[in-house]
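Homework-ish question, so no full write-ups if that breaks the rules, but can someone show me the predicted structure for this set?
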Amino acid sequence: MAKVMVVDDSKLMRKVLIKILQDNTNLEVVADAADGLEAYKKFKQFRPDLVTMDMTMPVMNGVDSLIKILSEFPDAIIVMVSAMNKKHMVINAIKNGAKSFILKPINTQKILEVVKEFFGENAIIKAGSTTEAAYVGKKDKSGAVNISSDDRMIDNFLDWIDQITDVEYYELVYLWKTRVIDGTLEKDDFAKKVKVVFDTMD
Amino acid sequence: MDPSLRSSENDAELFSILKEILIDTVRKIFRDSYGLTIERSHELSSCDDEYLTYNNISSSIEFHGKLVGIVIIIVEKKFARHLLMQMGLGALSPEEESEYIHDSMGELLNIILGNATNVLLEKNISIGIEPPSIFNFENQDVDMIKQNAWIYQINTAQGKCCLVLKNN
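A: Not a homework solution, just the prediction itself:
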């Protein structure tokens, strides 16, 4: 799973960006930072595959942070985010190694375009499966299993699997495609695991 | 002509351009990004001190370059709550709301001023902006802030908002 770090001096914007990424992609948000210097330190610690970097920040601005990170990690993918799209600022950021630029106000579509650009369609969780995918992704492996099989629930789950066949590493999808299909896991036992997940949903 | 006089005339012209751009930008962002319907908007010759200081959310950004000054946004709480929801977090608990509401106004002003500077640059007027800060009128001399300030009020169904532009 690809890792992301979100950098913005606004706590709100960090939360919004993290929510968009967590709700709509299978990227893992491993860190966030409130200024360019903190971003540099956390980059060294977490080595994210993608960084969203605000440009106007206190302590160290986004472009200086970009330069500092790329001087040590030249392959880093850093995308600048700013309300200002002054030509010279964008050119300066790109010239210094930024891979893309997002103009504020941000929205889900703008963020997903960037994610697709670097990680492909497979990184996007399709509409309608977001909640289920998120829950399955967070599923408690121990799951209390004293529940009987439920065909309707399995049917729903299989419909859902059809929508997200690319997201193979979610545990239940993986179980279905390997151990259920090849018969090493009973359908009833699989159903119990699915029910545990569905029961935790709103 | 006295060079200082020419400079101040020039400043007045630049500020006039900035005002027009701010008006267009704020209306566009409210409409396109936050789905707000503007019922009325107008310049104020003065602003009620109580409105400036009582129970509203304020944020400010300083700018510099060809123009130097500060822009302050003052927003009614219910309006701020609406914008906060529109920014992508949905309904928040009271604790979360108080945690993010000032930040959201700073971000809103940053977006307004950032987008306005993009338009200014198309007219070859370059200004830089600082990160937003919370503006606390209770700690400021309100008369000093209002002196020579341009105040623009926007009324929407979700509440009232004021922009204050001051030349340093």
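Now go work out the reasoning yourself. Hint: Residues 1-6 of chain B have pLDDT under 50 and may be disordered.
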